[in-house]
Amino acid sequence: MKAPVLFALIVAAAAASAQASSPTITWEPIPEDSSFVPRSAFSSVFSAISGPYAAFSAATGSLGFDDYQSTFTDGDSFALQSMRFVGGVTSVGGIMTFDFFDTDDILVSTTSLGLPSAGNFIWTITFESAPGLKDSDFFIPASGYLQLTAGAATTGQWFLSTSLPTVGTESRAPGEGSLTTQSHRFELNVPTPGALALLGMGGIAALRRRR
């Protein structure tokens, strides 16, 4: 299992990091054939979500961490519209914390969520003030690390796979990948260009209505 050695000395920085507002959480079964086709208007900038899947036993505390190098090129960070991960908690309402670190191992953004269903699924967490607004203010590094932690009264899992990312890259070196050939399953998304254009047109229309 991954040891949270890289981040042991910077947990205290959490208070100064960005906090996510209340996101929308949905989930769907893990397919038996390990395939997964997302059903949303999002564009992935990092995707390591495919199987085959494997996991350590459910545990409390750190469930692991993984590095990621996204395909986002317009800056050092971006507003995370949605993320997916494969895993879950063993009881309804179990708390899971998502910590995003930059490449210097500095904690940048964090959010703790109570998952509304027990069991392992492909979860989608969408960061927007209302469905369809595409107005996330939860910024994460364009490249860095994601760490998942199960709360003190929670046991959970974060699934692994030997499959390489299909969007973006990651390291399989010891200390950055869970094992030399395996990595945790997650995906980072931004709105599609078309969705952003529609959102902009909606904003222009709103301004005209106010005049």
Q: Helices, strands, pairings?
A:
Blueprint: E1 18-19, E2 24-28, E3 42-48, E4 61-69, E5 77-79, E6 82-89, E7 95-102, E8 107-114, E9 119-126, E10 139-141, E11 143-150, E12 156-158, E13 160-161, E14 183-184, E15 186-191, H1 193-210
Parallel strand pairs: 1-8
Antiparallel strand pairs: 2-9, 3-15, 4-11, 5-10, 6-9, 6-12, 6-15, 7-8, 7-11, 13-14
Structure in words:
It is a single chain. The longest helix is centred in the last third of the chain and has 18 residues, at 193-210. This protein has 211 residues and is mainly beta. Helix content is 9%, strand content 39%. A hairpin with a 4-residue loop joins strand 7 (95-102) and strand 8. It has one helix and 15 strands. It has one helix at residues 193-210, and strands at 18-19, 24-28, 42-48, 61-69, 77-79, 82-89, 95-102, 107-114, 119-126, 139-141, 143-150, 156-158, 160-161, 183-184, 186-191. It has one domain (5-210). Strands 2, 3, 6, 9, 12 and 15 form a six-stranded antiparallel sheet that branches. It has a five-stranded mixed sheet with strand order 1-8-7-11-4, with no helix packed on it. Strands 5-10 form a two-stranded antiparallel sheet. 37% of the residues are buried.
